[in-house]
Design a protein that fits this description.
mainly beta; 4-stranded antiparallel sheet; 0% helix; globular
């Protein structure tokens, strides 16, 4: 299984932007894996944010982030990114990246998860 780690979380004001990164341990290559971004807010179930295929040709966004968030990947840098713009308090959650060998959008399919990074959107 891949070892993944997220970075780039923090506190941001409403309307602000953040970019999350998902990197794999050096001995692993992300290029063979689909990557999903998920989030979980207190008291809520984990939900999909966005998923990207291993080639980057297929990308899916949840309706709640469509037009505000952008997922991309740089396989040469072994990193997947989540650019988040126009953040609002409803985006506050722990954000996770996860991997699976096949492109999918269901969190139940992903079998390797990072520890998560906290995003807080507040004045």
């Amino acid at each position: 299984q891949l070892q993944l780690v997220e970075s780039g979380g923090g506190l941001v004001q409403p309307g602000g932007s953040l970019r999350l990164s998902c990197a794999a341990a050096s001995e692993f290559s992300l290029r063979y894996y689909a990557i999903g971004w998920f989030r979980q807010a207190p008291g809520k179930e984990r939900e999909e944010v966005s998923c990207i295929s291993n080639s980057g040709e297929n990308i899916h966004y949840a309706d709640s982030v469509q037009g505000r968030f952008t997922t991309s990947r740089d396989n040469a840098k072994n990193t997947v990114y989540l650019q988040m713009n126009s953040l609002n308090p409803e985006d506050t959650a722990v954000y996770y990246c996860a991997s699976f060998e096949i492109y999918t959008t269901s969190p139940f399919d992903f079998d390797s998860w990072g520890p998560g990074t906290q995003i807080a959107v507040s004045e």
